[in-house]
């Protein structure tokens, strides 16, 4: 049976001229299935309400799953992930700065063990961070997949049918156009353009005198790219989570300090610290070596850093060599491995002889810069082979790139970060360095537990620690026949961070997709336009139209006006309904 045609949506200022009679409403608000009045309790008849049997285990599981896979919970988990990642910004992490973690244990022995038990030095591998990460992943998957399935069904489906009443829409319009409904529909169809998906249909109704009449309809919609972009954005977030986790499983990362002129090999044995993922395989470690040829730094007159450049020579697997400059945030790349410049400083070269005149030590020792912008640096020199290992020597002190002195001639600091007048001030220790007891030590910190500081007697008879002051090329005899120490020269050192992470490229891909999806979801309008065309009594066509958008769309009225503007004013009289 044909559907009755209710022309309420066609009401114009001259309904009588159209000869259309509204279809009567069906009696009995309950519809065909009604079987009598409802009870006050909301059910049919007077039966007692059903007892509450409880959700049960399956009910609670379903409720929990629905909550977990809601977009609201996904957003909360995303916020929670950012919150639980914050400790990684306040405490040093073993994966990025293991030396700082060791220093934290030395500086805060009372709290370091407690913080370590809470995984605050390894935040991103902690159980609680992993739990939030996995919950966010599950929540996004459970939220996105059903929406994607519904969206794919909507893409294959035709636009919705024309509503029977247009008066409930805020954006609507009416017009009379010269021509048959079919002619007017072709004009409107062309005005909608290729951006709209359209569904052309017809509705049958009757006039007041019982004459059958057909109304042509157009259902048009656009903006599926908005939901597509929204889904692409969230799927890209899932992709970022996946590739980030994958990268953490297969990556490796090593830190190494290289003195000018020295070489390091991409091998775990050559790194000062080395960290790998759970799926790390040695075959993924590309064999190459890097030599630090030069290091140049540039500072302003007020000691502000302007540029750091490490000139290196890279020797690859096949023996091919190439030179490159490594700058901060401009790494050297070889396949999936990146070599970052993370630090620099001075490595004074010393030669130490023992009491018998034998050379016990000769080499460059990195001195680590302090917080002083003028590169005041701390360092140690360990000489375990002095005196046959029986009376080992140790030196700790500071390096001043541009030494300044007080009125009495005592060196008090550095005036500039460049080595304009470099000097070292060293304390001398003798005893057991503790290098042979099998306990790992910080090579940048001298353990004086089993050592004695070498003292000297001043002119006034008081004893005080021996301080050795040296400039490049100078040599000093140590007291008590301990030998000599010579400050040979002052090369630079550079700290490199070698990272292998094949997920970085995919992170860029998914980040780009997320950005594109976000732009589409924010700026592509989702609009629907419905048009009904009825032949008028005078041979013209009554046009009624309505438009609907998802969310606030200030351009919706203009869009409807643009479509109706095809009804040329020379051939049509246009009027708008009161809103």
TrEMBL record:
Membrane topology: Multi-pass membrane protein
Keyword Transmembrane helix assigned: yes
GO terms classed as biological process: cytochrome complex assembly
InterPro entries the record matches: Cyt_c_bgen_Ccs1/CcsB/ResB (IPR023494), ResB-like_domain (IPR007816)
Keywords: Cytochrome c-type biogenesis, Membrane, Transmembrane, Transmembrane helix
A Gene Ontology term for the protein's cellular component: membrane
Localisation per UniProt entry: Membrane
Domain of life from the UniProt record: Bacteria
Renumbered residue ranges of the record's region Disordered: 1-50
Transmembrane segments: 73-91, 128-146, 231-249, 504-524
Sequence ranges assigned to domain ResB-like in this UniProt record: 71-561
PANTHER family in the cross-refs: CYTOCHROME C BIOGENESIS PROTEIN CCS1, CHLOROPLASTIC (PTHR31566)
Protein's UniProt name: Cytochrome c biogenesis protein CcsB
Native species: Occultella aeris
